[in-house]
Amino acid sequence: MSGHHHAPESDRGLKFAVAINLLLTLAQAVGGIVAGSLSLVADALHNLSDAAALGIALFARSISRMPADEFKTFGYQRAEVIAALINITTLIIISLYLLYEGVWRLIEPQAVTGWIIVIVASAALIIDMITALITFKMSKNNMNMQAAFLHNLSDGLASMGVIIAGTLIILYQWYWVDTALTFLIAGFVFWQGLIMLPRTIHLLMEGSPENLSREEIKLSAINISGVEDMHHLHIWHLDEHRVALEGHVAVNVNELKEVKAIKDQLKLMLKNKFNITHSTLEFEHHTDSTCDES
Fold it and tell me: What is the pTM of this model?
């Protein structure tokens, strides 16, 4: 129950982060339009995605706390993984859009007002760092908050880049720096999205945990007295932290109480050695078992 006690405080931090990011988005958009800065508009779009990412993360966190019911017998924790997928996909789409806009800016160059860029981007950097700090504290072992943190971290780096671009425009009138920076921001965002996307999809596809070996689990099972074989073995993620296993266990005992003792040892071994807390085991006598994998 401890998660429920800590949830409201962490959620208040997220709500505050959403509010200040929405205000920042408005300021950046207006500043970018007035200054004629594509990189500042790009940063505003990215920042809008941050606010959306935080909102989605907040919504998913509230859903994930719902208890299991007849419709979702394993519970709702996977909602946070879905939120991570949405946010990562958004990152990739935004990065592609920024690359498209950057190409058009190369074709049709525009003058940029450096002072507005520096002032707005400096305010953005402060807010980005506050938001990144809030999400970083919550991102340990949480894919949903890691995706939200990546949004904010990349936006903070983008704001630093925009400040540098604005300074170079003021000092040297290097307007091309604004477009070059847009490409750098877009490339970084795209790269971050691609890093997290395969892992998120693997989890949603109920893939086997990368750190678990079916052969190692089988060998550990066979080492238990009375177990001859383990087959039809399936391992998958219930959510980001819980792993489930089902399999057939061939035993050389006949008494029900002996089977019960083996089952208890197997479940304890799966929990302690492999951190598998949900297991479904079907027992059969080794003379009747078939070892076909399916």
Answer: 0.66
